[in-house]
Amino acid sequence: MKTGIKIIILVLCASSAIAQPRIHLGLTSGFNSTYVLDKGLSEDPRYTAKANYEWAPIGASFGVDFTNRFGLQLESIKAAQGQIYQMIETAQNVQNMIAERNIDLSYIQIPLLMKMMSRSNNAARFNFQAGPQLSLLSSGSETLKFIQDANINLAEGGDIPLDATTVLVGSQTDIPVAYQEALLNGEITPPSSNELEIPLEYFQDMENPDQFNMPENSIMTLMNSEVESEIQKFKDKEIQLAFGFGMDIDLLKHFYISANVRANYSFTDMRNQDLIDFIGDADITSIFSNRANLLVGVQLGLHWVIGGNRSFKAKNEKEVEDIFR
């Protein structure tokens, strides 16, 4: 009788030892440093990039480990990306910040990752992941907020469409005289949304058309995902490369935690084709480098494994082997 029981246990363990796919479900969160790699802004001496940090508050994952060394993992992550550029004015050899250019983007990121893992059955294992990522834009804006009165030259940038750009002023006293006269003469109709939102053209210096007189606390809207103008919209989706490396650590029989360094980089320009055509940049390599998303951060996750973790299975198999010794 005892021999029969031992044989049954041995058969069950041998069948479980055969490589079988392991399915795991998880929740993730992360803290990232994000960048907008913009060739025009980086080469413009007026702008200085500022470090930008964002939470990726919640994400979900579904994975299948086909062997101890290889698996696939599909994720869905809500993540923020962007960059802050400080606009600097130099007067009498003294640099002074006059505005901040804030690119703020929110995405649902869907990476499909190939996961290469160490073969070890230890509770802690190394892994490397890489694969394509589809990023769906949920909201986006690019604004230039002036922290003091400033006279700026927009001709140098070449990326701001004059007719499609508006400025939100802080009070009635900041409304340009030219705009007030146009209203009185019936030349224009005031917008129904906000009477303090003024077309950029009315801030133009009459003596120098390339110059614009911007009041303190005014906010220039350069791009927004909710506007009607196609020239001011971001692309609603991007193709990116996601990759990372880290560790999986078994906690309980069915649960493990993951700790990874994760990064992604976009292959496509985040701006709409209408704006690219407006800028007149037909060099495809220049387009890639002009406005690309880059994210580098730390990702933590808690995962549930159907059938149990490999380290616990290996432990059970060893205990069974000890029975027969």
Q: Give the low-confidence spans.
A: 3-18, 282-289
- The beta-strand count equals 14
**Helix proportion:** 10-25%
* Termini Cα gap: 18 Å
Structural class: alpha+beta
Q: Kindly report the spatial arrangement of strands forming the biggest sheet.
A: 1-3-4-5-6-12-13-14
- The number of domains: 1
Walk me through this protein's architecture:
- With 325 residues, the protein is of the alpha+beta class.
- It has one domain (2-323): Porin, CATH 2.40.160.20.
- It contains six helices and 14 strands.
- α1 (2-17) runs antiparallel to α6 (310-323).
- It starts with a helix and ends with a helix.
Please supply descriptive tags for the structure shown above.
Porin, elongated, alpha+beta, disordered N terminus, 325 residues, single chain, 6 helices, two-stranded antiparallel ribbon
